[in-house]
Amino acid sequence: MNRTHFVMQIGAALSVSCLLASYVFAADNAPDKPAIESRYLTNIRQVTSGFVRAGEGYFSPDGQTIIYQAVPQDYPFYQIYTQPLAGGKPRLVSTGRGKTTCSFFSPDGKGIIFASSHLDPDLIHTEEVGRRQQLEDAKPGAHRRYQWDFDQNMEIFAADLDGKNLRRLTNSKGYDAECSYSSDGREIVFCSDRGGNPNLYIMDADGSNVRQLTHEKGYNGGPFFSPDGKWVVYRSDRKQESLLQIHVIGVDGKNDTALTDNGGVNWAPYWHPTKPYLIWTSADYAHGRRNFDLWLMKYETKGGCILPGPLTQITDHPAADVLPVFSPDGKQLMWTSSRTTDHSSQLFIADFRLPE
Questions:
Q1: Where are the alpha helices (DSSP H) in 156-239?
Q2: What is the dihedral of CA 31, 34, 37, 42, to 10 degrees?
């Protein structure tokens, strides 16, 4: 995911052709004030449980089902699951082996895509290492800083809703993941390091006609098409290593614009389906705000560019809130949070209200 891949060890350099804006995030959550999130989120409920951790969820086109990644109790790596929101049980739709991530429904609701390393030629050894690490992490007092590895065996696959009829879409040396469909279902945008640095690529839905979208140093990933199909939003640390900023770029590769420029980590951007808003995860290290919360930006499209506008803090819980996505009608928000009783990361959904 969205996408989940919070990367802390990559790259440098910035070049944009539209307006570059800088924001300082300011929290308004003094102890004597009501929670900020109560203004925008109601009916908050946890929708995953029983996993070591779960997250990076996305809605089906009809909004009735979600797809997400979760670590089961008996396996050390994320697998992909679907789950009806109306009281259904999780259904495994990945192979059950290898590392998986970045699942997404096709816009027609008939299929899914996700990234998987189940074809790893050294999979048995990889699983053994993962199991040993899982045992270490389970020890009392153990705490390991999260790190996403660019697994060189990661490829993108398509499948039917039940995980059957698995088709391999990428077949290149290196990491291919962080994938999502265009709204018409004709194209997939994804991240790949096949050229050296992780950059964005677009391919047809069947894996053909691959073209490179960004050509930047550092890490450029977590992309999503805009609802009108003209833009891609993503995250990049090209300006300063480990400090991710939110960018948009035209699908023609032009008008790459930084929407944030601060001393923090900004990632997992996602478009509102009907209104000119983007939501993402942010922690502003430069100003002492190290907890990850969700932030919303109203933007303007003008002169062939997307221009940044007002920012609104959406969550202010002491736990981490990350990887936000809107339902297809924009009335619900789903995100990954550690606000659980056992502090494990799980998926939450709430009814959502825009600031306006």
A1: none
A2: 140
Contact 68, 81 (CB under 8 A): yes
The domain of 144 spans: 36-352
Separation of alpha carbons 219 and 247, rounded Å? 12
Domain presence at residue 26: no
Residue 271's CB is within 10 A of a number of other CB atoms, namely 24
Per-residue pLDDT reduced to its tens digit, 185-203 = 999 999 999 999 999 999 9
Tell me the whole-structure pTM to 2 decimals.
0.90
Number of domains in the chain: 1
Q: CA 152 to CA 147: how far, in whole Å?
A: 15
**How many whole angstroms separate alpha carbon 133 and alpha carbon 283?**
27
- Convert the pLDDT of each residue in 58-86 to its tens digit: 999 999 999 999 999 999 999 999 999 99
Judge whether 313 lies within some domain.
yes
Task: Quickly count: other Cβ atoms within 10 Å of residue 196's Cβ.
Answer: 8
Inter-residue contact 175 to 192 (CB < 8 Å): yes
Residue 170 within a domain: yes
- Determine how many CB atoms are found less than 10 A away from the CB of residue 270: 25
What's residue 17's pLDDT?
Answer: 35
Is residue 129 helix, strand or coil?
A: helix
Residues 6+ apart with CB under 8 A from 355: 39, 40, 296, 298, 312
Of the candidates 186, 187, 212, 185, the one whose C-alpha atom is nearest the C-alpha of residue 201 is: 212
Q: Identify whether 163 is part of a domain.
A: yes
